[in-house]
């Protein structure tokens, strides 16, 4: 039984970080067989039948519910958006679709299936046909079951004026339907009928909802990939393999006393574990895809960090394109978190302007470690950090720790003698090193010429590099752990000028370098959300699916743990207690895991399935 399933398994994929078995791993030996087949034993294994019957009952329930709908109710609704438009699309689905057409167009035969026909729609209450609802309407008829809902479907493309649409919608329930009732569709009911009739699986339904809710290009791309049905087929494939595995185990449970089996329960569970290990590897990949897809759906969180008065609020306003933050020459004007959402190169982003971080009482001095460029700058001591500013700094640190991308902002400053130096804060670099992606930008680059700026940036990059290496070497002593990859990597360093960008100098394609910064951000976003080209459908794994995969993974891991139990609790004690794996418990772990997969695709029989379906379809 298993041999046929295993031959159809996918092969391993050896690329990082996605290197993991997609479905199955190779087995060290042949699967166990027993000398008497199921039919020779007098019937199939009862427990396997229970699972099959449960799934069949679930499908039968869906079919019977669908048959009840087909026999009794026809639904209709406005499928296009509300409001004035050139064309409005009204959809009718159910056994009475053709009767609706005959009532609205009594003098014309139905159009050829799947061919458009121009018709005049009349009021079904006017026997003379003189009361015209809409002239030159486009009518299409799709006989089931190969339709969007699996039922007979009628589409009326009418003129999109409010009065016309209202008149047609009001006339449809007055149509004479001898075979069925007609009513206005509930939210998502067309999609629900498509699911009940097997035209869509639940993963495709969720992707359809994501497609309708997509606001950015990347959200649209991720949602469209999920409508292919690949996810549902994968989940159902795993479920079927677990059913086969469970059938083998439960056959051993039911018939081990009457029939001879080639291998012991422990050996059978060990071989089944190879199958489960392959599914676990695939689940981990799907969960990783879910994590990356959540960034596309919910938005990538970006924090602007830096000392006071380096231009964080100005940069925020330039990127967002409006005055989201207050800009002032006075340092420390931002005390709370200011957030704004926007679309950058198709990625939904949430920008957060934070309070300036100060770790010393002097912002710039000749002895400060934050002064770069060899300047002997003399600045008056900064004011003491107030309670309000301290709270703002605390919130800035927390926001940085919760962000996916951090922009560390520094600025070119001039000392009292005109010597340039770069003002930055070392703590902001430490916080940025803990983020998945970070960029260092130096503002006010227009206050010095290019040659001086180039030297300043070179010295600044060297200072940042030494600071990272110093933190990495001392991390084992002070407990301040910095990710090795982040500490060793050269941070992207960009020179920008918010003042030049605001001036919008003529003849410059990117005054101030803001567009270059946006492009660098888009590259960071692509890294955060990237998946292999042949696994793009993983970006359509939803949070609901991920939560069920977590539970499924836990049950499968419990199965592997049970299957790996030692055959005895000790080898030296002559009275060692036998510790053979519990095959009944192992089979139960497989059953629970298969139920989780069934719930993902909508085949589950749990009590809350109807509630879950209702929430999904209404989207």
From TrEMBL:
Annotated segments matching region Disordered: 42-66
Domain G: 301-444
Subcellular location: Mitochondrion
Keyword Acyltransferase found: no
Domain MnmE helical: 202-619
Pfam families tied to this protein: MMR_HSR1, MnmE_helical, TrmE_N
GO molecular function, one term: GTPase activity
Main localization (coarse): mitochondrion
Family: Belongs to the TRAFAC class TrmE-Era-EngA-EngB-Septin-like GTPase superfamily. TrmE GTPase family.
Protein name: GTP-binding protein TrmE N-terminus-domain-containing protein
Species in which this protein is naturally found: Lasiosphaeria miniovina
């Amino acid at each position: 039984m298993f041999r046929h399933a295993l031959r159809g398994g996918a092969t391993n994929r050896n690329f990082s970080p996605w290197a993991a078995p997609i479905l199955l791993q190779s087995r060290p030996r042949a699967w166990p067989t027993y000398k008497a087949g199921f039919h020779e034993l007098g019937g199939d294994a009862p427990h396997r039948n229970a699972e099959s019957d449960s799934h069949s009952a679930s499908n039968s329930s869906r079919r019977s519910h669908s048959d009840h709908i087909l026999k009794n109710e026809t639904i209709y609704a406005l499928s296009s958006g509300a409001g004035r438009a050139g064309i409005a699309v009204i959809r009718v689905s159910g056994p009475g679709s053709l009767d609706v057409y005959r009532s609205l167009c009594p003098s014309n035969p139905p159009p050829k299936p799947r061919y458009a026909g121009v018709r005049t729609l009349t009021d079904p209450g006017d026997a003379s046909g003189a009361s015209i609802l809409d002239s030159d309407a486009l009518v299409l008829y799709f006989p089931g079951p190969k339709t969007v809902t699996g039922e007979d479907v009628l589409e009326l493309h009418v003129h999109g004026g409010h009065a016309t649409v209202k008149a047609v919608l009001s006339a449809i329930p007055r149509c004479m339907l001898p075979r069925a009732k007609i009513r206005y569709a509930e939210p998502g009911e067309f999609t629900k009928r498509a699911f009940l009739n097997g035209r869509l699986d639940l993963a495709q339904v969720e992707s359809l909802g994501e497609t309708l809710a997509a606001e950015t290009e990347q959200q649209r791309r991720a949602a469209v990939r999920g409508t292919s049905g690949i996810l549902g087929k994968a989940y159902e494939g795993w479920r079927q393999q677990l059913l086969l595995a469970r059938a083998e185990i439960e056959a051993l449970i039911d018939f081990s006393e009457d029939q001879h089996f080639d291998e012991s329960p422990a050996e059978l569970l060990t071989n089944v574990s190879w199958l489960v290990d392959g599914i676990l590897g695939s689940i981990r990949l799907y969960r990783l895809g879910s994590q990356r897809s959540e960034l596309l759906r919910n938005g990538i969180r970006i924090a602007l960090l830096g000392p006071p008065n380096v231009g964080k609020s100005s940069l925020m306003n330039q990127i967002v394109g409006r005055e989201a933050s207050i800009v002032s020459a006075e340092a420390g004007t931002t005390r709370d978190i200011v957030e704004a959402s926007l679309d950058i190169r198709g990625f939904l982003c949430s920008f957060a302007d934070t309070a300036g971080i100060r770790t010393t009482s002097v912002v710039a001095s000749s002895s400060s470690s934050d002064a770069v460029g060899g300047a002997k700058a003399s600045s008056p001591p900064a004011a003491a950090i107030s309670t309000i500013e301290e709270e703002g700094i605390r919130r800035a640190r927390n926001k940085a720790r919760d962000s996916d991308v951090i922009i560390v902002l520094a600025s070119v400053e001039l000392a009292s003698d005109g010597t340039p130096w770069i003002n930055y804060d070392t703590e902001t670099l430490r916080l940025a090193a803990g983020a998945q992606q970070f960029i260092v930008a130096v503002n006010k680059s227009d206050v010095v010429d290019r040659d001086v700026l180039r030297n300043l940036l070179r010295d600044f990059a060297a200072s940042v590099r030494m600071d990272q290496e110093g933190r990495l070497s001392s991390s084992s002593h002070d407990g301040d752990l910095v990710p090795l990859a982040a500490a060793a990597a050269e941070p992207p360093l960009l020179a920008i000028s918010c003042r030049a960008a605001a001036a919008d100098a003529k003849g410059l394609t990117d005054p101030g370098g803001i567009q270059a910064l946006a492009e660098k951000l888009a590259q960071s976003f692509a890294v955060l959300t990237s998946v292999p080209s042949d696994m793009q459908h993983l970006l359509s794994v939803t949070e609901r699916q991920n939560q069920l995969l977590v539970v499924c993974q836990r049950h499968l891991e419990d199965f592997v743990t049970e299957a790996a139990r030692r055959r005895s609790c000790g080898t030296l004690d002559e009275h060692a207690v036998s510790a053979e794996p519990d095959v009944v418990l192992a089979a139960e772990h497989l059953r629970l895991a298969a139920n989780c997969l069934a719930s993902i695709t909508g085949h589950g029989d749990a009590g809350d399935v109807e509630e879950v379906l209702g929430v999904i379809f209404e989207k």
